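JOB MANIFEST
job_type = single_chain_structure
chain_count = 1
residues = 106
[input]
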Amino acid sequence: MARLHSSTALAETLSGYCSLFLAVMLVLSCCESFVTENERMATRVQSNDMGHRPCDEIYVVREGETLHTISEKCGDPYIVEENPHIHDPDDVFPGLVIKITPFKNR
């Protein structure tokens, strides 16, 4: 009979730990979605703040971008002229560093 009592106690202890684990996982998943939403809002605020200056002076090309899309995004129609290391405007790749001078600052 003592053996049955220890098995029951063990099962109750394991059940308690499992419940605690699930509760912690639930709280963490709620926190993760809260942080993700805050990051989305911060990104929106940054993009709104960047309306007057859309790009930094030093710009790193991202996947899928072309000089044309960067020029429109950053307001710099003279990217090729300002970056003599770009020999072929069609040969732009992710990670390429270019200088940006927005047109309205000229």
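[summary]
The chain has three helices and two strands.
The first strand starts at residue 58 and ends at 60.
exit_status = 0
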